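Input set for joint prediction.
Command: fold jointly, output tokens.
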Amino acid sequence: MDLVKGILMKIRNEIKFILNDRSISLIDFEVEQTLLDFLRLDQQMIGTKEGCAEGDCGACTVLIGRLTNGILKYESVNSCIRFLASLDGCHVVSIEYLSGKNENLHPVQKAMVEYHGSQCGFCTPGFVMSLYALWMENPTPSKRDVEIAVQGNLCRCTGYEPIIKAALSINKFGKPVFDYLNIERKNISSKLTDLQDKKCVVIGKNDNEAILPATIDDLAAMLKSRPNATIVAGATDVGLWVTKSLRSISPALFIGNLAELKKIEIKDDILEFGAGVTYSEIQSWLSKFFPFLENYWERIAGWQVRNMGTIGGNIANGSPIGDTPPVLIALKSEIVLRKGNKIRVLPLEKYFIDYGKQNLQQSEFILSVRVPLPVSNQLNSAYKISKRREDDISTLAAGISMVVEDGLIKDCRICFGGMAATPKRASITEDSLQGKLWCNDTFNKAVKMLDEDFSPLSDWRATKKYRMIVARNLLHRFFLEHDLNTAQPIQLLSS
Amino acid sequence: MTLIRKISGAAHSNHIHESATKHVTGKAKYCDDITEPVGTLHAYLGVSDVAHATIKSMDLTAVKSMPGVIGTITTLDIPGMNDISPTGQNDEPVFPVDTVQFYGQPLFAVIAKTRKIARHAAKLAVIDYDILPHALSISSAQNVGYPHVTAPLKLERGNVDKIKSKGSNQIKGEIAIGGQDHMYLEGQIAFAVPGEDDDLIIHCSTQHPSEAQHMVAQVMGIPNNAVTVNVRRMGGGFGGKESQMNLFCVVAAIAAKKWNCAVKLRPDRDQDMTSTGKRHDFVINYDVTFDNDGLIKTVDSIFSARCGYSSDLSGPVTDRALFHADNAYYYPNVRLSSRPMKTNTVSNTAFRGFGGPQGVLAAERIIEEISFITGQDPLDVRKLNLYGETDRNITPYHQEIKDNILPKLINELEKNANYRERRNEIKSFNESSKILKKGIALTPVKFGISFTATWYNQAGALIHIYNDGSIHLNHGGTEMGQGLNTKIAQIVAEAFQVDFDRIKITKTTTEKVPNTSATAASSGTDLNGMAALNAADQIKNRLIKFAASHWNVKEIDIKFISNMVHVGKEAFRFNEFIKMAYMERVQLSAAGFYKTPDIHWDRAAGKGKPFYYYAYGAACSEVSIDTLTGEYRVDQTDILHDVGCSLNPVLDKGQIEGAFIQGMGWLTSEELWWDDNGKLQTHAPSTYKIPLASDKPSIFNVELADWSENRELTIKRSKAVGEPPFMLGISVLEALSMAISSINNYKVCPKLDTPATPERVLMAVEKMQELIN
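tokens >
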């Protein structure tokens, strides 16, 4: 038991999880140790591969089974940027588990063999795991479903054609009901339930300390006593600090399993979700209440990263090219922050002060995000531009929202990412549109005002010139997209 | 009539990749998966963070004092030569003695108990530089008078100057072609295990074990026979492991001997991409004359390449660019020159196509430009200029083309892909569609097969049959996913008429087959397949002789059929027969050998027959572009490709599909971007974007020209497949170009440089719109 600022916590000094069919408990390990290194170096399980160590190639893909509201769900994740500590209470499934004890090929594996889905074979275990996750959820996927499931998997040999054919035929080789993970679902669920003892986990100390708070109160208290702590949610960004920049993250506060940060609810016409909600977890809510975001969401990273990464994290790290802030700002979102027992609410746009500088006090953390539901006559769009259409970082991103009443533009909100040191509203352009007639002419004039709002940088993603032209064109696209007189297709859709 | 069961995995059958089940189960072992001996140490490279400088001092105190560090390796620790130049030009040090020549150049290595410690420690070096001015691009290198890294090549035929001056239509143009990172999924790695005496065993992910062996020997100052290099498989190579593994091998070897421990060296992806070579960028200037029908009269082109700081393979790469500057077209008068420029960037190297793609792209751009001037369908200009089948068939290097099948192949694809009709539909779509525009293009490829370094066209194989009838197969080629081992095992299975599974394919090792050539230039099956067949035939002949005398039958009455050996009227199971042969003291092992006949090349004269034969193909691609953002999609691609009599149609299709997508990536989303300091900023998959599954053409039809048969006596009349289809990606680039040009009613060639990223497409769109206004 540990007394932190007057709060009495129940402490556990080990993490416990299930790896394939074995129970693992660890009391001492490096905070920065990744699941991939644990598998390959400690366990000599060499089937999972390291391709990039940054969550972009998928060769390291494994499945993580987690209980959410008592339901066990398996998701594909990148083991290369997944920290060992974050696995507490999870079921880790690696490629070694698929063939089972009798060494028969799994239906996913059979399909990949039969359809010649491997050439050099190095990316193959990762593809198999991603397709396994898809098949369990959706045994008869469309081609598009497959493309999305393997968005985070690179293959340099096959050109993907045979992999897609294999993926579409897995069900011929076996049904998910007979799959071991489904047969064992009850058993694993009860084992994972047993692991949830509502204790705060503390591993190590001093410069190698990992903490998994059991409650938000724990988190607030721990952050008070360790103001320099690194908060790790999905680790899709923090993971790279370690694997690429070799940074130390101790003391690290792992909040990915905190149920209180995973709440999603609609109240008073506001969608509120906890900062620990992942891109995947919010997806069905967005489809329902913000259907225009469906295509946009598919372009945020790859499936594995969407399964790990949180919107809270996307906001908290303050990046000028995060995918979610522009559209959330356009939708008038607010964030709820907590420090100790104090809570404050901030319009999201006020969070971003300058490059690397956010409106966040010491020991403060983001609790939740509030997004008002669209009112009637509200037109919304989100656009993302990147060098490669999917699984790429934004060259620029735009969120645009306007209410049009009696042919007049009201409540115009335009926010861009990648155009300034922070996600930034185009205030001058907005002013030029406010109250104006919804027509081509209005927009032709307005797009020119963007030059007053922005002076973007040139870098490896694009030149300043490209960013400016595209920003103007996207605003123009917004008009075309929502104007009733536009008959012809104006956007390339996914295949 | 008795039904004879066919053997499994015969030649020309669709046998699965020999490692497929190991791939999907994660049991296929790559270099990093080999069990490490106790006490294995880990090396990591310390690299420069300047592009060009004199090293004033290098202080490694902090590196050495980090807990867990065993020591460091610098130039002073090199026992033999400080050079790993693959062509013997002595211009590529393991570590530079005094001058840094590119950002990311390895300067030293640190050896530690774990890779993690070594990675951390490598960052602690304190290096003091005197900064020198640097030249990163081809033009800046030319402006400051940087030298060529190797002797340029000139190919000439006819009389360019005389015919050009006669006056006709002329275009003078330039195309800038970007490089490409290999982005093999398994990065570079070497793992050295010291043995007794001078001996070293190196496990390495390499396409060229013999070169790795020779480089380790050279750097260690020991004979080649002390070094063994092994590779079971690579997680992709694409040319990136033809010479680039040398550095990792020699550093691991030096450390292994210095501390008498096994030492592994595996860079992370950033270092792999920053510190190893890539496909050459080219700037190609062309000056072309042609008549009113679009028939080419003269071509006068200069091919300048960004070679990086050293020669590496830039000589043969830039040579091959010239060899393919004609692609499929007859140039009656032609002059082609290479300019292999030195730059302060990483030394560029082999990459699928080896300079050929840049040459082919120049040819296709010339055709495209002509079609804009004459107002023709580019396909008509292509057909008009194609090499003849019996005339108009001399290349710029004076080789006569005898096997041209492109007229038939192109016509077939044109018909099957419904090219003309779709082109018309696209044109009417473009008339009505304001924001989205479409384009279509059908482009061919002709690719010369053979190493232009003629001595490389040799191969060896080793086959043992053990006395239980199981067969051990080894050859000098390496498996990087292309299915080489599968095809060669099929050839051997066919030779002995035994099931594929009887054959054990074993790791490539310099111990079994010496002096091998790189598995490169698409030659793996052609060369090693013939060598394996030669070995099999030797054993078979001995077996036949043995049986003929043992059972007193005619040799002609001994037949190998479906796992049986028929001797006159008797028949034995293969393993029983082998056992008997063994008991009768028949040698059941043979080393096979092959050298490509009838090729020669006189580089000084620019004349010869460098290629044994040509492989052909064509692709038709349709794209849609978004004129507001420059984004695009490939809607459909139809490919018809020539692999002669395919040894394994399904593996060949896999090569074609993969090569097409890789070629498309090279020309579209894969952009290498160096900042002004010479630092490569696109050095990992987060910033360097190779195609995804969703980038594949929505409709993707790939067919083999199954009527084609190699005119030459290649292995089972098949043709090489690794590189030729890479160039089919050019159809995507030209389709993008057509879509862009539609804005200005197809009047002006957009002349896209590559890669045609959304930004380049949008800028070209903007230019077209300016032309209208």
